[in-house]
Amino acid sequence: MNTEVALLTLSLLYGIPSFLLYVVILFQFVRPKYRNRFSNPFFRLCFLMGVVDCVGYLIFYIFFTLPIYSMFSSFYGSALFFPSPFTTAVYFSAHLNSNIQIFGNCFLTLNRFTAIVLPLKHDKIWDKCFLATIVVSLLAAIAPIWQLSSTAAWYTPLHEEFPERGFAMTLDNYKYPDFSLSFHMFLSNIVACTLCLFMNVVSAVVLIYHVSKGSLFQEIIERRSALQSEKTLMRR
Question: What are the TM regions of this chain, as residue ranges (predicted)?
Fold first, then answer.
């Protein structure tokens, strides 16, 4: 018990300040004082990803970290966490959150990719496609794990002989016997990492090329600055 208390205390000492700092940073994005500065699609994506991160942290900590401690066994072993739509929603939302983070980061990388490779068309592309990126991220996140939305989930003891020593959430494989969550999560990571790697490599090559052609690079920067100034004046 003493070891558990120490581990829980350490996790809270790290987790709570980090979470609050993250919330403060996100709050700066929507403050009227800084709204114009952070109004471009990149920072809007960062804000949305930050919200997803915060929600994911709370879900994971409350429903996947705390149950492993024996001091909470009476709560997580109660009827509230028997197989139900609630436990299914918790399990599904936790993995959906992870996938949204994976594919959302892909679109952050894509935003930087278009800024470097297509600097003069970057703003126009993202003004038109910003909402589409959110929809595609959600669909890409749901596609590999949609089976979880209708699969029973519940808590089982970590140690069958000592059920009071903590719980872990498990999944019923009866409905979809061929579904492998680990494989689908692995596949999602591979696809996302491959896309990000490709875009980063191309961006690096293009950036090095433009830097070597200093005058062209400077011209692009000046033209983008002029376009940004025009957009700012139009908003006012």
Answer: 6-30, 42-63, 129-148, 186-209
